Amino acid sequence: MKFIRIVPWVFIALSLQATAQTTEAPLTKEQRIKALRKALGSSGGSETPVSEKAKVPAAPIDYRDRALSELRPKEDSYSHNLQPILATVQTQKIEATDPVLYQGLQLGLTFQRYRPQGRVRLVTLGERSVDQQPTVMTGLEMRYMPFTTTLLGHHTWGFRGAVNYAVQNVKLYGPTGKDLGPTKLHSIQAAGYVSQEWSFADTSDWSWLVDIGIGHFDLIQTGEHNFSQASGGGWIALLRTGPSYRLGSVWMNLAYERRTTLTRDWARIKEDGVLLGVQYGFR
Fold it and tell me: Which among 56, 109, 181, 232 is least surrounded, fewest beta carbons within 10 Å?
């Protein structure tokens, strides 16, 4: 009798449960996951909250990049106002049109009309004149002009060395009128000068030379016989002056030279002469 009484209530409960299940709203995604975990989980296992996210392992730290970043200078350590420092080179400007501004070595040649003078005493032949026909005496010169000043304008000065040479054939006869064979007369002049030069204007190719010096003059006569040989000479003071014209690295000048004999001997040199010179400048 008790069983008969319970059956109707069970039936009513099952009917209500079925009705509730048909009218219940569908499960959400989280509820389905929770139910699935509860079904698969072992007994006594702890439940993991749905909202808890799986932890992702942290990426390894690159200590090399960190060290480089610490060693790299900060941007604020740079100065944006720095200007490049330019090197200053001092140069000496040489105007090609101004001969005075040239400083260097010059080599050149000179040419002058020459005629020996004097009377030489020869053994057994007595006194003979050495006057000969005029010839050309050629000279080799070296000039170095390292100094410049403003004395009376554009002025430079230095040193000049010169060696001049000429040779002539001499007809020499013995007491009986016999030809004594080939005889030559050698003329040598060596001198040193203090050389000066003034420019006419800043852009002029012309300049004026003034050289003061001292030199030695020699006449040497050579021949086949001892009694036809002789030599003589002496010291001379020199003054040379004249115009000079520059064309590029070449100087051309025409100078007057005054010679004053300082010692007396049978050999003499003409007191004045005119020299035509050409020099080339080496830088």
Answer: 56
State whether residue 67 is helix, strand or coil. Answer: helix
- What is the C-alpha separation between 61 and 65, in angstroms, rounded? 9
Condensed to tens digits (0 to 9), the pLDDT of residues 248-258 reads 889 899 999 99
Residue in 116, 105, 112, 104 with CA at minimum distance from that of residue 139: 112
Report CA-CA distances (Å) from 136 to 131, 163, 164. Answer: 14, 14, 10
Contacts of 85 (CB under 8 A, 6+ apart): none
Q: What element of type H or E holds 29? A: helix 29-40
Which domains are delineated in the chain?
99-282 (2.40.160.20)
Judge whether 195 and 211 are in contact, CB under 8 Å: yes
DSSP class of 5: H
In the chain, how long is the greatest CA-to-CA distance? 204
d(CA 203, CA 195): 22
Record the tokens describing residue 34, joined without a space: 């929770």
pLDDT of 101 > 60? The answer is no
Q: Which residues pair with 105 in a beta bridge?
A: 144, 282
- H or E stretch covering 268: strand 267-268
Between 125 and 80, whose confidence is greater?
A: 125
> Residue 110 in 3-state DSSP?
strand
Mean pLDDT of 70-91: 59
Distance separating alpha carbons of residues 207 and 98, to the nearest angstrom: 9
Q: What are the b/e assignments for 194-205, b being 16+ CB within 10 Å?
A: ebbbbbbeeeeb
Which class for 255: exposed (0-12), middle (13-18), buried (19 or more C-beta within 10 A)? buried
Q: Which two tokens stand for residue 73?
A: 């200078």
